[in-house]
Specification:
single chain, globular
Length: 92
């Protein structure tokens, strides 16, 4: 699964390349050139894509910038990246 910036799709939509899902976190020309503060619930996205699956484990996290084969260039900056585990209050 990839979390992406979409230039044609809206936040919350999905794009598939083959059977590989890409969740659009944000995008649009109006957001280019300014910092964006994103918070993504990976478990919620995973559960929406693979409803029948359980027991997910994150094995890799990568940050990248590409132009989606548009023959152009792009620059992206990432800062303050963190993962948070949601506390299940039922376990207390």
């Amino acid at each position: 699964m990839e979390i992406i910036w979409g230039n044609r799709l809206r936040a919350g939509e999905y794009k598939y390349i083959g059977s590989f899902p890409h969740y659009v976190a944000n995008g649009g020309d109006e957001n280019v050139g300014s910092w964006q503060d994103e918070e993504i619930d990976l478990l919620a996205i995973y559960s929406e894509i693979w409803e029948e699956e359980t027991g997910v484990t994150i094995t890799d996290i990568g940050l990248l910038c590409d132009t989606d084969e548009t023959n152009t260039s792009s620059v992206a900056y990432f800062a303050s990246v963190s993962l948070k585990q949601q506390l299940d209050l039922g376990e207390l």
